Amino acid sequence: MNKLIALLFLLSFTFTNAQKKLITIYDKDCGYCQDLLNKTYQDKDVKKLLKNYEHQLVEANTSKGKEFIEKYAIDSYPTQIIISNESASIIEGFMNIAQQLEFLTNSELFKTNPKDILVTQSSIVTERKIIKKSTSNIETKVDRICRKYETARTRVQDTTEAFRKLVLEAMGEECHKCGLPSKTSHSCCISEPKFR
Description:
The chain is α+β, with helices and mostly antiparallel strands. Helix content is about 60%, strand content about 15%. The protein has seven helices and five strands, in the order αβααβαββαβαα. It has helices at about 1-20, 30-40, 45-50, 65-70, 95-105, 115-170, 185-190, and strands at about 20-25, 55-60, 80-85, 85-90, 110.
């Protein structure tokens, strides 16, 4: 009888662990991802715990990676997802050996409600639309301000040129050296007569 109980216990333990999946989403150009894969996952204690999971390494740029990114609203790498009994435990970012051991042994502490993920995805889409609209509004306002500035600059130039012409008419031609009207007294025209 004890052997039967022990056998059932082992079978249930194997069945339970076989249902757990660990999916690691990584980017091949990410230094933290490489540290997780080449250092943390290579630790002997971590390797022992990884044997309890069906472990998949998924590159972010693949179609499967993009599917996980969309489904779980992933926005940083590496991201690890433990799927067990239709629930997911998600952790983003690099984990050292101690953190990884904690995550693998107590993944239920990191559980995420799938409804929260959908709300998060919806929020992200909404925020992107708001940002896009805000950016468009800002660009429109900047264009409007630039047009007003150009109009004002053109008016100032026109006004300055008209004022210059009025001064020249009243004061005489420009000095060939300094550009001041010749009917005013200034040092270059007094010391040297103007010949044209």
